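User: Hi! I'm working on a homework problem where we have to compare a predicted structure to a textbook description. Could you give me the structure for the chain below?
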Amino acid sequence: MHIEDVHEKTAQVLEFLALVTRFSQLTIQEEILRRLLEIPERSAVRLTEVLGPGPSRLVLMRDRKTRVIHPLIAEEMLRQFAAEGRWQVRLGELARDFIRTLADIAGSNSDDIIKLFQELFITRESVEENEYRRTFSELITVLGEPATRNLVLQELTIRCPNEPHFWNHLGRHYMYEMRSTVEAEQCLKRAIDRDPRNHVHHVTLGTVYRLEINRVLKDTLIPERRTPDEAVSAIRQLLERAGQCFEDARLLGPESEHGYIAEVQMITRVISRLRQLAKCRYSELIGRQSLAGDWCREMLPRADELLRQVKSLQAQGRTSQRTRLCEIKLKEILLDDEEAMIRSLQKLLHHPNVHRAPIRRILASQFQLSRGQTRDFKDLKVQQLRNIHELMEENLHEYPDHGPDIIRWLQAYRRLPEFDTMEAISRLGLWATREESLEAHYYLYILHLLRWKQGIAASAEFVKENIERCKALALTQRIRRPTSDEWLGREPEWCPLAHYTELGEWSYNASSKESFWSNPSPLAREKGLIKSPIKGPQAGTIALGPFDVFFIPGERIVAGRDEGKEVEFYLAFHHEGPKGWQVTLVEQ
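Assistant: Happy to help. Predicted structure tokens:
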């Protein structure tokens, strides 16, 4: 195969090229290969001359970059260079030699070398369509023994000690394969030291603690038949560390699902283990006046709120498999003998020595999930809405600035005929005054705009002011919402809003060449005038009284022709301001 009896240096270069081609889409720069082959810097000798006529037929050189002509040929080259053709056994030694040699030649801070190492040893490809990603890169996965994989990843951190992702993956290997929490924690802390604002490292460190919690529960506490209270005492510090990591991850990467889902998984798994220790139903465990019962009652509403947030992030697209599995598990816990759960929680509310707020939150979830197993407020009966409203009223009397309670209170209250817009504005205004909350300003701008539409308020000042605060907070908090939580609805008359959960699935419509909700029937059509100028097919503005509504003209609304014309549209209340969807010209 053109590689028999080649010189030692030539063999090394060919093996390196084969490694890169077999396990990546990248190349090796000719300059590095010339240095490997000890060709003087200003020599006119061509690389092909040094490689020889046979090997030169196997490589592709373009723009001073080199690779083997095909991955299958690269794999065969690796096989022929290895003793007895056992190329996968030889791969670990070759990978370490590759890292050492290239780092020495090009320098450990070379962007090209870092990119090449990341592609080979770090990048993980998705497998099939089930959202599963390899735990490690293909090259690391092919290495036979965990110890060999660990040595290769260690070599990366030795030669490139300032690269945080190399420390991250070494930590992940200690966590998943070597089962060493101490070494995994050390590696992840080094990754965070080098890149403190990358949410991925914080999630991974939290996962280190989460897996250690699972190990302690499974391998120690359950076999020793400890009580649930003893278990919570044993893992409490780990739970707090993991929770802090996931919270940091959400602050740094608010659009990524991982900081949300990882904590929900941790909470539901621990509750499942505690139930196993208690040898009882979830309803009994959660209703107990004990250390474990207290912890479960505090954490369940937290998991519920995190799931609500991540579903909002994924609304205008496919809900991830992880999110769906978390929702199923949370429902399994909350709906386990729901009547017994409600009775025990209501009884606890009258006990003098319990924290009542989380109990009310779980009861509100119970009313929302009861029997129909829905999470949509639109399907609840008036009495269920009143129950939720009253529970949240009591919580807000104790904790007036608790955001999730305010949102749930508003979602129930606005659907009741006794809804008072000014009462809602007052409560949201106090929340916004005490805490710069994006959600507070979001709902303030919506309610003020509804008052303007109903002819109650003439001024647009409050609407515009809260829209600007929303934009500023979204920018500061690095939150880019892909969807609008609330839309202008047909009903109820006193607060005509439709939540995105009422609108079905977000999908592409081939006839209209647009993506939109599969069930737009709860939505109202609004009218406005197209403002001048239309900036092109991607950006236009509709005048809705004193407010600007952004829309995408597409092919149907044309610049230079349709300015000033009346249009109909669905009105979305986006966090960056009103947006128009399904915009059509009104026939004159």
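For your comparison, note the following. The two ends are 76 Å apart (CA to CA). Residues 228-252 form the longest helix (25 residues). Good luck with the assignment!
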